[in-house]
Amino acid sequence: MNDIDEKRLKKIFEDRAKQYGDYKENFRLLAVMFSVILQDKLKDDLEDHEAAKIMMGLKLIRTLRPYKADSYDDLQVYTKIAKELNIHRDSVYRLLKK
Description:
By secondary structure, this protein is mainly alpha-helical. It is built from 4 helices and no strands.
């Protein structure tokens, strides 16, 4: 199976943004929610990129069920989100180190 092309990926991002809002804010809130739910188990709060990785795991597990293209598309979307959030985080850390 080929990767979804950038044009289609952009369309998925735009559609999701219209339905659910800005992914950066959503994953920040998701990280807070996961941290609250897991507060007795975690040493530190989760970060937004870690929440994206959890969602990647969810979609990956869904691929074990009968085939649904949306699960693979969403897995790619969450992978892209995790990558972008990590890049942003690394940029901020580099700025703070200066």
